[in-house]
Specification:
rod-shaped; 110 residues; mainly alpha
Length: 110
């Protein structure tokens, strides 16, 4: 019996189902850019509420609800994106945090 060596079929290269992550600088830039965009979105109602309360003893009644009206959808978007785009989600949370910090300082008279 003459056996001929036969080549076993090679398995194809595994398919990459995830996108390449990119470098650390690109990820940091994405987080920073999204944080800045979220902060600017938070700044708009804070600016108008702070301007309306300027040189008054109390903050206008709609200052915190207006800030929350922007913060809540941003937070919902961050929760929705946390699995698929973690850098974007992290940037949104950082922007919300900075915006709420500014709102607290602005509305308390600091």
């Amino acid at each position: 019996m003459n056996e001929q060596p036969h080549d076993e079929p090679r398995s194809p290269e595994p398919i990459e189902y995830t996108r390449p992550r990119g470098g650390w600088f690109r990820r940091a830039a994405r987080v920073t850019a999204v944080a800045l965009a979220a902060f600017v979105a938070m700044f708009i109602p804070i600016f108008f509420a702070g301007g309306s309360s300027f040189e008054q003893p109390k903050t206008v009644w709609w200052a915190w609800p207006a800030t929350g009206a922007v913060a809540v959808p941003l937070g919902a978007g961050a929760v929705w994106l946390r699995k698929s785009r973690p850098q974007v989600s992290a940037g949104i949370w950082i922007g919300i945090g900075l915006g709420l910090l500014l709102a607290g300082m602005c509305f308390s008279g600091m």
